[in-house]
Amino acid sequence: MEIHAKQVRPDVKNRADRARMLISCPDGPGIVAAVSHFLHQHGANIVQSDQYTMDPAGGMFFMRIEFDLPQLSVNLLKLEADFEEVASRFKMDWSLSAVSRKKKLAIFVSKEDHCLVELLWQWQAGDLDADIALVVSNHLDMKDYVESFGIPYHHIPVTADTKKEAEQRQLDVIGNDIDVIILARYMQIISPMFIEHYRNRIINIHHSFLPAFVGGKPYAQAYNRGVKIIGATAHYVTEELDGGPIIEQDVQRVSHGDDVTELKRIGRTIERVVLARAVKWHVEDRVLVHENKTVVF
Amino acid sequence: MEIHAKQVRPDVKNRADRARMLISCPDGPGIVAAVSHFLHQHGANIVQSDQYTMDPAGGMFFMRIEFDLPQLSVNLLKLEADFEEVASRFKMDWSLSAVSRKKKLAIFVSKEDHCLVELLWQWQAGDLDADIALVVSNHLDMKDYVESFGIPYHHIPVTADTKKEAEQRQLDVIGNDIDVIILARYMQIISPMFIEHYRNRIINIHHSFLPAFVGGKPYAQAYNRGVKIIGATAHYVTEELDGGPIIEQDVQRVSHGDDVTELKRIGRTIERVVLARAVKWHVEDRVLVHENKTVVF
Amino acid sequence: MEIHAKQVRPDVKNRADRARMLISCPDGPGIVAAVSHFLHQHGANIVQSDQYTMDPAGGMFFMRIEFDLPQLSVNLLKLEADFEEVASRFKMDWSLSAVSRKKKLAIFVSKEDHCLVELLWQWQAGDLDADIALVVSNHLDMKDYVESFGIPYHHIPVTADTKKEAEQRQLDVIGNDIDVIILARYMQIISPMFIEHYRNRIINIHHSFLPAFVGGKPYAQAYNRGVKIIGATAHYVTEELDGGPIIEQDVQRVSHGDDVTELKRIGRTIERVVLARAVKWHVEDRVLVHENKTVVF
Amino acid sequence: MEIHAKQVRPDVKNRADRARMLISCPDGPGIVAAVSHFLHQHGANIVQSDQYTMDPAGGMFFMRIEFDLPQLSVNLLKLEADFEEVASRFKMDWSLSAVSRKKKLAIFVSKEDHCLVELLWQWQAGDLDADIALVVSNHLDMKDYVESFGIPYHHIPVTADTKKEAEQRQLDVIGNDIDVIILARYMQIISPMFIEHYRNRIINIHHSFLPAFVGGKPYAQAYNRGVKIIGATAHYVTEELDGGPIIEQDVQRVSHGDDVTELKRIGRTIERVVLARAVKWHVEDRVLVHENKTVVF
Fold this sequence. Notes:
4 copies of one chain form a homotetramer. Chain A is of the alpha/beta class. In chain A, 33% of the residues lie in helices and 28% in strands. Chain A contains 9 helices and 13 strands. Chains A, B, C, D: The active site is at residue 242.
């Protein structure tokens, strides 16, 4: 279909020379000066820079820098190699990536389609700057729809008995070059083994304003508690159910007149928007994780 | 002071003939017809009417009616007496009150002043249509300020050992004609004995988006969990800590850069606004309680 | 595709006997009593009732009633005929419709697809209780996509010279049984002749928080003015450009860092949500128009 | 009164050595490197740094840096002198100020008290890190209240005939060391002569979501237009009425049931919150003005 083909947005500039750097390290004097001096010396021009110091005295320092470097593809490797000296001086965790190298996504889905539909729509509209490499599902419902976008759809049923084998099959079809896995209302608990492979690289959307209403049927829980606002939460998956680092949350007002069906209907739009924002921020290298919290630049 | 004296708002109309009726009963056919017919027969004109049916089949029915009745003060007693027949036919819980009869408030406060200051400001601005009969505190901090409004201030210290006696003293100074007690950041747990005296008539402001972060230090809990939105909750006090029927909630977006001190600062304004709305709705007879939930018209 | 077929939501109850009534009339005593008495006498059970009086003294009265009447299809005509007496007594504008009779929609679209995609998604998800009878466009872009849902797509080009003929062709393809026309980012001004045919039945989405930024390029206007919040507005179309009765608005916070492209991206989600809400409310008979304003129940 | 005396917040750290720098200049390579290198060389430790480039190619560059410098009071003058070289190299507009040197505020008010009360409350609560040097009013209403805080109150009546003299008297009482003037619902138009003295240093709160409803009676305008959301806007005052650079805006949902009196009541809280935020950001050196827009860090 025509609509599915327009994946090149006309207003996206040629960004072949743009790169992003993420840094986490213990705070100390001279970090910003050292990094910006290093980039300047190597001919890079800083376009955007954000930083955050958790606590001026002895805390952690986080930084995201977006810069342009002429002939980036030629110079990136040398830049990385040269930066090692700065990084080791300040004991940095760091990463550097060319903006032109799109992140590769695997989307997991069950039967509820709204989050998947939203991601696909934002992707074909050019708003999600990533490649959707494949979709994995324990159901067949979305197969035709996903394949109409030219995206491979892997149907891998999961039962209590076959869970281990199913996860292995998932890891096999995902392969080795997926950057991030999106659980777009995938109603299965991920095993610690699987999580370990993708530490801070699995994003889940939970249909409540966490930490309220952890676990199953959060809209029914919300209805029973009589809350006046409902929400949704996108977070990285950890071994603790619905307990991982929160990337984004949003909410909407409801009233006594909204029953569970209506809460679900209202919630679907919150879920869509929150998950899409979190995925966008992740693929734009805006999210750093420290212990169980995120820094979002 | 001049500012404290302007308690009569010029734009408030003469509402001597206005009354409000609250009704809860099992749902069934003909309730609206019976009530509106009754009021019409007695010469009342319905100005505003709200209703809600929890579930069309066999659920509960809730109604709030605001009406004008000529010479209300003369006719109110007869109206109440005559309504008994309708009420018993439909097994109604109901109440009827003249708008001109202002609700009497007792405000409990500890050291944090912002919620009390807000209520006093809204009251003197004419936005809170109630009488603030007295303030009770376990501290002396707000004494001069409260008394400058001409409002009695009762300093009743509370310790673990004296709690029972202190609550008895509180009940004594409150007396018998207080309609509702506002816990405006009153940092003491209310005993079941005390709650029993004011069932669904004690409003607390909790400084989190309940049911998240029940109990002490909710802003520190929110900071540690890394939430992206904080909130406050006004609810009726029950025996379960922070577990009573929610009247109102509101939230505000925060970021990783906001430490606990900043969360508290942002939260103070949410708390003020949420508590003031809940109190306003209560004194305007807009809140009905059913089991552990509220209907807010 | 499977996704497009599930237009019957399993949790929608059998509502064959449910109807809705909308009433506007000069305020006066006894209206609620008369209407509810009438319905009760005819065996109807009121499920939901909302009313609003613009000004107690001599203003307008608005009411929406949802009720169940056994064997509605058999009894509806008699109910309508009998209600004439009540209606003429109070000089009512009124309408009565069976909930089971879905409203018929015509959607107009140009090249921007997001609002159309949203409406189609909500429709196939069962959240939009209406029939999408046809789509009209001055471009071919969305043809395949719309037809994949089994919905007729009428391509009617419009130029300055052919506008009159084009509008006549539009009226022809719409025919006589369309209830409401949705301008889902249809970038053509509708002529007074056309509007007259569908008074208060054409819903437009304007991509600004009206009345700010009337007319073309509202996101560029918003950027140039440096606003900190952007919005979208759904309104009925009148002869005054972007000046008709507002049905719904919503907003989102932006920052100095958001350029026009980013404002458009953020705005697309606001537009989608606001238009979908307005259409939902219209087809559920929740919107009454009085002069240039709406009452939304 | 006790409440008015607690102007020292216990949790405010000793910030004697903290300073802030604001920079605006044409964008170009090496700015961040030069500034951070300069600060590092002088022994300063960057605590927070924000930057924004309006357009990577040939646009403007804005930066805010918060840093600690040992013995700041001794070293500040030398730092300023040394920075001249960097500043002239990049054609910077810049300013540097010690955090311990509080900004001095003059507040102008007429009869509506809510914005003034909010600023005074935030100030005494320690949330507004500034000195309120004096209050100027064309009315006497707030005199006693303001003076109870120990703040001088200057009553300067203004009529069409005496406007020029009145403004001169205002300038006289303000003197030469006021940093910023807050129009806290001061219902007089400021003359170009007066504005010229305090370019980008007069903050007004307008009681609408600008640019909607410029000028008088914005709540009545909003009611007549039938908007579903109302707002307030804090902006710097320029010669164009309600047309200056916007610092902050916020909004709240309203309904058809809210008349002008209710819109005003709801609006008062929006106004209070928006103005307080804008003032806070201004005194914390978070706002840079470029042409008719603000950058808020």
